[in-house]
């Protein structure tokens, strides 16, 4: 279905760099290939029991990856500016989904794990909070619909 809307007022106020355009192309089963502004392709698929091939991440898995990718990029950028000596950094996602359709996330927990020498917990916490409260677009969208909790773990070298 092609549907066009003419929101000239919205379009006039939008800078082209603020517009993301994506396309998804059907392959077979429930496998699709998607391409967005950066022109990088990503494959999506689903479980065999619903008609997929289990050959790629599902849309909900990609949403979880988008969230931890967004916040991880924010946090490591802030931590580098603070000159913390982080030697390893990981973010883990734990999401609980509704049992009935739509099977949305009903709760999300993010675990930020830092490893390094003489890390200051206050700086790590500040970086995580800045990402959560200000910078991460994905978490700021999702937290309007689902409770997102986080935990910070520090491993000193």
Report the order of strands and helices. HEEEHEEHHE
Poorly predicted runs are 5-9
Distance between the termini: 57 Å
Mean pLDDT: 93
Main sheet attributes: strand count, strand direction, barrel closure: 3 strands, antiparallel
Strand runs, count: 6
Tell me the fraction of residues in β-strands, as a range. Answer: 25-35%
Helix content: 25-40%
Task: Using the CA coordinates, give the radius of gyration.
Answer: 19 Å
Query: Structural class per helix/strand content?
Result: alpha+beta
Overall shape: globular
Number of helices: 4
Order of strands in the sheet with the most strands? 1-2-3
Describe this structure in words.
The protein contains four helices and six strands. It is globular and about 50 Å long. Strand 1 and strand 2 form a beta hairpin. With 157 residues, it is an alpha+beta fold. Mean pLDDT is 93; it is low at 5-9. It has a three-stranded antiparallel beta sheet with strand order 1-2-3, with no helix packed on it. It has a three-stranded mixed beta sheet with strand order 4-5-6, covered by helices on one side. Helix 2 packs across helix 3.
Outline of this structure?
The chain has helices at residues 8-13, 59-81, 121-135, 137-142, and strands at 23-28, 31-35, 41-44, 86-97, 105-116, 147-156. The protein is an alpha+beta fold and 157 residues long.
Secondary structure topology:
Blueprint: H1 8-13, E1 23-28, E2 31-35, E3 41-44, H2 59-81, E4 86-97, E5 105-116, H3 121-135, H4 137-142, E6 147-156
Parallel strand pairs: 5-6
Antiparallel strand pairs: 1-2, 2-3, 4-5
């Amino acid at each position: 279905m092609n549907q066009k809307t003419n929101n000239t007022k919205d379009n006039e106020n939008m800078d082209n760099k603020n517009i993301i355009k994506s396309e998804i192309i059907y392959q077979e089963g429930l496998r699709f290939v998607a391409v967005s502004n950066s022109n990088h392709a990503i494959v999506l698929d689903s479980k065999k029991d619903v008609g997929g091939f289990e050959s790629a991440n599902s849309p909900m898995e990609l949403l979880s990856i988008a969230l931890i990718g967004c916040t991880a990029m924010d946090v490591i950028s802030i931590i580098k500016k603070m000159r913390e000596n982080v030697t390893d950094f990981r973010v883990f996602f734990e999401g609980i989904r509704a049992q009935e359709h739509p099977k949305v996330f009903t709760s999300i927990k993010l675990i930020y794990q830092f490893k390094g020498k003489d890390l200051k917990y206050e700086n790590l916490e500040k970086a995580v909070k800045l990402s959560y409260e200000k910078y991460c677009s994905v978490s700021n969208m999702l937290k309007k619909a689902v409770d997102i909790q986080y935990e910070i773990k520090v491993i000193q070298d």
